Amino acid sequence: MKIGFIGLGIMGESMCENIVKKHDDTVYCFDFVKEKIEKLVGVGAVGCASSLELAGKSDVIISMVPKSEHSMSVYKEILPALDSSKFCIDMSTIDPSVSVEISKMVKEKGAEFIDAPVVKSKPAAIAGKLGILVGGSVSAYNRALPILQYMGENVIRMGDNGKGLVMKICHNALVSQIQNGVNETLTLAAANGIGIDDFCTAVSYGGAFNWYLDSKKEALKAEDYTTAFSIANEHKDVHICLGLAKECGVKMPGEENAARVYDKAMEEGIGNEDFCATIKVVREGK
Length: 286
Fold this sequence. Notes:
Mean pLDDT: 97
Helix content: 40-55%
Number of helices: 13
Strand content: 5-15%
Shape: globular
Radius of gyration: 20 Å
Low-confidence stretches: none
Distance between the termini: 53 Å
Order of helices and strands: EHEHEHEHEHEEHEHEHHHHHH
Structural class: alpha/beta
Strand order of the largest sheet: 3-2-1-4-5-6
Largest sheet: 6 strands, parallel
Number of strands: 9
């Protein structure tokens, strides 16, 4: 079984590398940035000149691209190569309705399709310990599971096509609100002379303990905003969430507040920094 991987960004490169290391057949790769292809070729992948070439050579096609329009573009391009022998896995975080549209387009060609967005960030991608949330049929999920386990240690089916993405958007929305709570209370504590070490220790003693603070403590302390997951990516996800909530008639004032912080961060030109850099917006009080 030959696997093709499209999209070798911050997450995709490590996800693809794990497949190369663990899979016992050819792994093809493609990205518009030539140097990214060369990096994966260096660890054993076979580079392709286009997504269409990759799809023609692969039995399983995995995509990991930034936005809804990118996923749609990939699948429109590879559509001529799809038939009943192909299995498509889109691991991008995109609008659920767009993913459902892509799934219908792919299935009309006889191929199978699942959405399988990931949670956690770069260190987990490197370690092959991502969480993976799947939307698709039970049979497709079972077929994809051994491949997904090359990249993640926690894989769960959430329902039919699009439901993996719904859960991913809910997950990231919750993270954004937890993050905003950390940003605000950490800033308030600092204004009263409480340092980050004591703050984190005190939080760990009670119900406010959270993985986000625990994982970002050292970065926040050092003001190190090296990107593991960018503000721009979370900004996109926050607004996908608000769009989905509007479609469903659900009010989310907490997420609207998080969106204001992210909108301001984007306006200030820090979209490429790690998403924990949103604390700068809160500290500035703008």
